[in-house]
Design brief:
Keywords: Cell membrane, Hydrolase, Membrane, Protease, Serine protease, Transmembrane, Transmembrane helix. It is found in: Cell membrane. This is Probable protease SohB. It is a single chain. This protein has 344 residues and is of the alpha/beta class. The protein folds into two domains: 185 residues, Alpha-Beta Complex (2-enoyl-CoA Hydratase, Chain A, domain 1), CATH 3.90.226.10; 70 residues, no CATH class. 53% of the residues lie in helices and 16% in strands. The chain has twelve helices and nine strands. Strands 1, 2, 3, 4, 5, 6, 7, 8 and 9 form a nine-stranded mixed β-sheet that branches. Strand 2, helix 4 and strand 3 form a beta-alpha-beta unit. Helix 4 packs parallel to helix 5. It is extended.
Length: 344
């Protein structure tokens, strides 16, 4: 009996060790694969093909069985004819525009958070498009952002300027909101459209922070802060702020606002910049009157209208996010939504 128990215990240990090794062998390649793909990937979607597929399904649904049979027969003939044409012309393609039936409309999305972290994907998308864009191609940016940090949105606007430098027309569509840093991006476009009730403008700069100095003093807590440079710190969270520091902080804000105004006016010289740069925002129809945008439209209608002339490709760079990244993104996104509610 003792021998049987000993053997059973030995067998259990052996099975446990083998199972543990097997699990490790399965987990290690997964971890390696995840680390290798950490940077992310570029995804491309043919939006026009998807739209025409949906359109055909809707048409078929409205037909009776006999009509469906006739339609499918005609469709098959059409596809065979197109395939024969494509095969015939494939041999003569020499990467020249003459052999392309349609130019391309590239679509990118930017749903901006306070820290403009989405710019890391934007720069990859812009680079990908510029690597293949040809004369006649256009780019549509579907923009949604209440703005955020100056340096983040400044970089995002600079990424969009790369299209201007290469003479690739850029259209910006605002379906919901593009204010502050969001409008800084939008104004780079050759043409801006917005939905009637989209929120646009807020060409201004804001800076605020709490000060806990009195709380520290009340609890007899001393704070020592040393700086080298007269304006290394202007306003602080825990130190005692001075009127001189406050004045310097306001001066920095005004200087940033001036740079913002100059940038917008440079991109859209027809604007009466002094009338629209007081930090106020407007709805789409009002923004059109003030020439902040060029027409009232939605991104959906624009894309459908363009399909007859362009093949439509959505370009999206997706980062592989860690759990911490996802958590911080949710927090940042919630703050952005809160700010949007405050504005509206």
């Amino acid at each position: 009996m003792d021998l049987l128990s000993f053997y059973g215990l030995f067998l259990a240990k052996t099975v446990t060790v083998i199972a543990s090794l097997a699990i490790l062998m399965l987990i290690i390649p997964t971890i390696k694969k995840r680390n290798n793909s950490r940077a992310g990937k570029l995804t491309l979607t043919r939006s026009d093909k998807y739209y025409y597929e949906v359109q055909n399904r809707m048409r078929l649904e409205k037909m009776n069985q006999f009509q469906q049979k006739l339609w499918k027969k005609e469709q098959k003939k059409k596809e065979q004819k197109e395939a024969k044409y494509a095969k015939k012309h494939t041999k003569s393609i020499n990467t020249t525009n003459n052999n392309q039936e349609k130019s391309t409309l590239y679509i990118i999305d930017f749903k901006g958070s306070i820290d403009a972290r989405e710019v890391s994907s934007l720069r990859k998308e812009v680079s990908a498009i510029l690597s293949v864009a040809e004369k006649g191609d256009e780019v549509l940016l579907r923009l949604e952002s209440p703005g955020g940090v100056v340096h983040g949105y400044g970089l995002a606007a600079s990424q969009l300027q790369r299209f201007r430098k290469k003479d690739i027309p850029l259209i910006v569509s605002i379906d919901k909101i593009a204010t502050s840093g969001g409008y800084m991006m939008a104004c780079v476009a050759d043409y801006i459209i917005a939905a009637p009730f989209a929120i646009i403008g807020s060409i201004g700069v804001v800076g605020q922070l709490p000060n806990f100095n009195r709380l520290l003093k009340h609890n007899k807590i001393d704070l020592e802060l040393y700086t080298a440079g007269e304006y290394k710190r202007t306003l602080t969270l825990f130190g005692e702020n001075t009127e001189e520091g406050r004045e310097k902080f306001r001066e920095n804000l005004n200087h940033t606002h001036l740079l913002f105004k100059q940038f917008v006016h440079q991109m859209r010289p027809k604007l009466n910049i002094d009338k629209v740069s007081n930090g106020e925002y407007w709805y789409g129809t009002q923004a059109l009157e003030k020439e902040l945008i060029d027409s009232i439209n939605t991104s959906d209608d624009l894309i459908i209208d363009k399909m007859s002339q362009y093949q439509v490709i959505e370009v999206r760079y997706l980062h592989n996010k860690s759990m911490m990244d996802r958590l911080s993104y949710k927090v940042s996104n919630n703050i952005s939504k809160l700010l949007e509610h405050i504005i509206t």
